[in-house]
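Researcher: Please translate sequence to structure tokens.
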Amino acid sequence: MASPQPTFSDLEQQARGHVTRRQAALELLDAKVPWSAWADRVEPFYPKAGGGRPPVPLGTMMRMYVVQVAFNLSDAGAEDALWDSRAIRSFVGCGEGVPDATTLCRFRHLLEEHGLGRALLEEMNASLAAEGLRLSTGTIVDATFVEAPSSTKNARRARDPEAHSSKKGQNWHFGYKAHVGLDAEGGTVHTLVVTPANASDLSQAAALVRPGDTDVWADAGYVGVAGRLGGCASPSAEWHVARRKGSVPEGERPAESLLASTRSRVEHAFHALKDLLGFRKTRYRGLAKNENRLFAAFALVNAVLASRRERPQGPPACAMDPVGPRAALISVLGAASVAA
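Model: Translation complete:
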């Protein structure tokens, strides 16, 4: 479709050379997302033109879905965002013919039905590796809660039947848990397992390790992991598990602090997921829908984290670079998430 005619505001903005943070975020995603590879994975399942109304071009729907995930929008919210924002409309490439919320909903269900969220994460990681992202043979494992609405004030008068409750410290959480394996040097998520919140971290530890990993870092929630590694892809990997607070002798605290700085890299991925993409609470009911959304969200998280790494990090055992990606992430996506 043809691009919409520029307005006087657009021409004035171009003359001043001003780029908003929302535009910067969209330009980053435009450059980093492997659109062709994603389209190749989705195209076999996408509707073909027939006797009825021709389908919306696949590329347009892929970009609209990325906007939905990046700014944590509902189907109707994504449609409204395209009408409201010329920058988003230009990114999607739909001109004045914006796909409606129902079309996006059907596309989202297609991805969920065929488990294509996982394919999006795989293709993103393959693209980043081809660009030269430095990877290691070490993995950091951790898990984070993704809350689900606990209220029963809805049409079904019931909570999400596939979500469960879990207690951490003195706080109860209801929803799901995202278990991730993160490359210790590249800082990107390579493996994701989504479970109800009551699944223990230990139960998924073996599934988060890649074949060939020689070292695995984990926090104190993984104490006792040695007895739960049946089926681990790299059974010979050395596990560096944090000790409980108060059990570390005074002389060993500097070494423990160094290991903690390595484990903390996973928090950058969780920060991007929850604070920048806004995925703190589920929007849909059911494990399959939320799993697909998390795979797509972590694919975008990886694109942002990799793009903001100005130089390769040191070996995993080194202290974390004090000038980490947090400030850069906020400058790129923080205001865009708020503005959406």
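Researcher: Any highlights?
Model: Residues 310-332, 334-340 have pLDDT under 50 and may be disordered.
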